[in-house]
Amino acid sequence: DTVVDRPRSVPSSLGLRWNREGASMLASAGGRGLCARCHISNERKSGRVGLRRTAPSSPARARRLLGPIRANLPSSGNPSSPSSKSKSQQPQSKTMGVIKPKQLQGSVVAEDAELSTTFSRRDLVELRRACLLAHSTKGEVAPFPFAGCVLVSRKGKVKAETFQHASGTTPAEIQALAIAAPKACKGGTLYLNMEPAHALGQEASVEGIAAAGVARVVLGMANPQPHLQGKATAALREAGVQVDCLSALVLNPELEEEGAASAVAVADRALALSREMAGAVVDTLEADALWTLKGCLETNEDLLHCVAKARPLCVLKYAMTIDGKTASVSGHSAWISGTDSRKRVYEQRAECDCVVVGGETVRSDNPKLTTRQQEGHVPTRVVISRTMNLPLDPTCNLWDTGVAPSLVITEKGVRPEAQRALQELGVEVVAFEKLSLAKVVDHLYDRGYMRVLWECGGMLAGPAIAAGVVNKVMCFVAPKVIGGDGAPSPVGDGLGLEKMSEALDVTDVSYEQISQDVLATGYLPTSTSIFHVASEAYGKSANPVAGNGAAGDAEEVTFYKAWRKYGMLSNFYCVDLDIGGRTWRSVEHYYQAMKFSGVGFAETTYVMDEIAAQVSAEEAARLGRSVQQTKPHLVRGDWGQAKLEVMREALEVKFARGSPAWRLLRSTCSSESEAGLCKLIEYSPRDAFWGNGFDGRGLNWLGTMLMEIRDQDASNDEA
Q1: At a CB cut-off of 8 Å and minimum separation 6, what does 38 contact?
Q2: Three-state SS letters, 393-453
Q3: Is 498 assigned a catalytic role?
Q4: Tens digit of pLDDT for each residue in 347-376?
Q5: Where are the alpha helices (DSSP H) in 566-638?
Q6: How far is CA 655 from CA 187, 554, 561, 658, 668, in A?
Q7: H-helix or E-strand containing 312?
């Protein structure tokens, strides 16, 4: 987890994209130039930023939009104390230096007692590096809150670079502290692209940082999740650690209505400045700070959308000719875009939880919707069909669930024989009483999905935009001309606005040339920009949200994904378990491996070792389920009966008295109610055995076992 070969993608605001060999970082379109790994090192030594634009600049306009922020040359020594030099020792400059917030009417930067901070060029360089590290496993694991960390000693030397591998695995900051020598940690600085988690049972990061003697922590953005926002920052400051947060400086979530701009106005001004910088050099520290913040926000734009909208980030992807056609008049569309563009699409699929198409796409194209990679994350293929007019031929690519899971969403009572036929092929079918795209997106959110890629045709894309469920657009434009009045367009008649004044603006647009094609990416009005989404997310209160792992009332607690509230209760949260003379990284590791225990095949030993070696529970589950499906003869014959006992054994070890997991489990009992009245529910729409299922009538075995362990422990206390 400490070596970065090639992130699959990086935020466009960083202006970097790794080539396929991982030897260098290439600037995306826009005249940003080249920046190899050695340039990152040079940035660290000089305290300067290596990415510069070459067009004529207008620093005055940038300063006017961002607000009057002082810019003085930073000290080149210890990043833990950037103001260590006296003012007379610091060379003066109007375009380089440190940020010191001031309270002035209309300024993007808001005054706060806790924001008496100082950011240097070096700080911004290391924050961007942390963002790049955070991208290391994108496409290899399902989307989760991505985190990267850089540890710099008090002498200014980089001692560790780490990243969190997947949801529920060891946090990046804990890895960094474990790698570096104690002497390197003491008085050093930790750079994190996002505020770490700090909650009941998750105190290890804050306690480890304080115990190691780290003097300063620099955060790119505050954690937007209501149950975590600002918690680690407050705890670190209470422990005597200096904490500086870039998002708190630029997008203050606690702006007052009078005397300062509103949160929306702040986001508007930040977006306006980013537009100004899109075509000009703004070689100021405030510009660097904004681009760095934008990179941090884009690194976790999935999470920000989930918090702000209580829905996953929905991205509409399509390819069209230069005259705006997605296929010929006959419907033929292979291929509009070039090979490199299609490779980018495969990477985008790997970075999403699921890929959505409509029935028309299935009937006309027979797509595979796979990532074309042998390993890594496998997104679910989702088909939305109100009529269930779908091919039932087993040779249909989407019904091959051995390659990737498939989900069909429809209405109850529509062609029930077709629904049963697909279920017999291994396809999951979810039927609503009344199908709507809003319900579809809400259901995908309940399944824990953070990012959804819509690859549908115009017949579904238009209604999706009209319904407000699409947040972002990725448009590949190929230098081809098709013509034809009957040739389809990316957005069909489902939108059909009559006046140009009604047209939907696509904002915060970026352009990138991919071989002969051009990729345009931007936000629809549902999101406007990453700054607006962030402002909305930070403004959310800590009110419980159904399906978000939050407590409903004193007698019910729901949990599901490892990164959400009460996520430590999930069997996908990694906690080392010593069972049978072997250490397992999580309950899920042990559970998946035991499927093949005691079977008289030599191959089962290899499978169990491979499952145990997986870094994350997600990867262990993926491997175990794949072997179970493709090689059922390796699964133990009594697994149907034994799996309850196996799960119970692992849970008892994980929730042993005194452990962090045990403290969280005990907290689910309200002091106002008797033990046993506080019900635990695994809020899993896809699992009706261990969870509550789609209709809420699942067996909820995992929640039941946790309640039994908790209540038995409480009974022992009473005895």
Answers
A1: none
A2: CCCCHHHCCCCCCEEEEEECCCCHHHHHHHHHCCCEEEEECCCCHHHHHHHHHHCCCCEEE
A3: no
A4: 999 999 999 999 999 998 899 999 998 888
A5: 587-593, 602-613, 617-630
A6: 35, 21, 18, 8, 13
A7: none
DSSP 141: B
Residue 89 parent element (H or E):
none
Q: What is the pTM of this model?
A: 0.84
In sequence order, what are the residues at sequence separation of 6 or more whose Cβ sits closer than 8 angstroms to the Cβ of residue 264? 532, 535
Provide DSSP, 158-191.
EEEEEE--STTS--HHHHHHHHS-HHHHTT-EEE
The sign one gets for the Cα dihedral 635, 636, 640, 642 is negative
Please give the Cα distance from 271 to 522 (Å, whole number). 12
Give 330's pLDDT tier (boundaries 50, 70, 90). Answer: confident
Question: What is the Cα gyration radius of the chain?
Answer: 26
Backbone angles phi, psi at 14, to 5 degrees: -80, -15
Q: Position of tokens 């708190």?
A: 248
At 250 the pLDDT is 79
Distance CA 692, CA 151 (A): 42
Q: Are strands 679-682 and 582-584 parallel, antiparallel or unpaired?
A: unpaired
The reported pLDDT for the residue numbered 262 is 60
Q: What does the pLDDT look like over 445-479, one tens digit per residue?
A: 999 999 999 999 889 999 999 999 999 999 999 99
Whether a cis peptide bond, with omega within 30° of 0, leads into 335 is yes
pLDDT in tens, 106-134: 334 434 333 334 688 899 999 999 999 99
pLDDT recorded at residue 46? 42
Could you tell me whether strands 189-192 and 148-152 are parallel, antiparallel, or unpaired per DSSP bridges?
A: antiparallel
d(C-alpha 32, C-alpha 49), whole Å: 12
Cα–Cα distance, 434 to 527 (Å, whole number): 27
Q: Which long-range contacts (CB under 8 A, 24 or more apart) does 703-707 make?
A: 703/559, 703/679, 704/680, 705/647, 705/648, 705/651, 706/569, 706/651, 706/655, 706/665, 706/680, 707/676, 707/678, 707/679, 707/680
CA 460/CA 280 separation, integer angstroms: 38
Nearest to 8 by CA among 411, 444, 451: 451
Quote the Cα angle for 415-421-424, to 5°.
Answer: 145
| Predicted pLDDT of residue 36 | 29
User: 173, 195, 455, 536: which is the annotated catalytic residue?
Assistant: 173
Q: How confident is the model at residue 336 (pLDDT cuts 50, 70, 90)?
A: confident
Tokens coding 661: 């997991």
